[in-house]
Amino acid sequence: MNSRWTDQVAPSLDDFARLAREAFDALPEPFRSLAGDVVIRIDDFADDETLAMMEMEDPFELTGLYHGVDVGRRESMGPAAEASRIFLYRRPILDEWCERGDVGLSEIIAHVLIHEIGHHFGLDDHQIHGIEDGAD
């Protein structure tokens, strides 16, 4: 047995926040500026109301969520009533990281964050996946 794992603990919510901030800070301009008003929040899981809204029963299915008015619609509506938020869900991300085993945790966090920033820019899942597939 490999004893180096016996004293390890799972990354905390604060660890995730730090990794998300590092990923955000690494974004190139102008993306960082355009997404600058987004609040990034780390929770262990989505709440029951969010899961119901997303029609999901398993909280491990949702790694991230964008909540707000995307920048394209915001300009025609005036300033947003509240800041847009990106939720990153620690436990589902950790689960994906463990299941994959071929990519670093910070890479998965960055991937989920960038995906949700895509929604902030007004892209839907299909468009985001097309961009991701083109980047591979």
Describe the structure.
Pfam families: Zincin_1 (PF06262). The chain has a single domain (10-135), classed as Zincin-like. 50% of the residues lie in helices and 10% in strands. Helix 1 packs across helix 6. The chain has helices at residues 13-25, 31-34, 48-53, 71-77, 90-100, 105-120, 125-135, and strands at residues 39-43, 64-67, 85-89. The protein has 136 residues and is mainly α. It is globular and about 50 Å long. It has a 3-stranded mixed beta sheet with strand order 1-3-2.
Please sum up the structure shown.
This is Putative Zn-dependent protease with MMP-like domain. The chain is mainly alpha-helical. The protein has helices at 13-25, 31-34, 48-53, 71-77, 90-100, 105-120, 125-135; strands at 39-43, 64-67, 85-89.
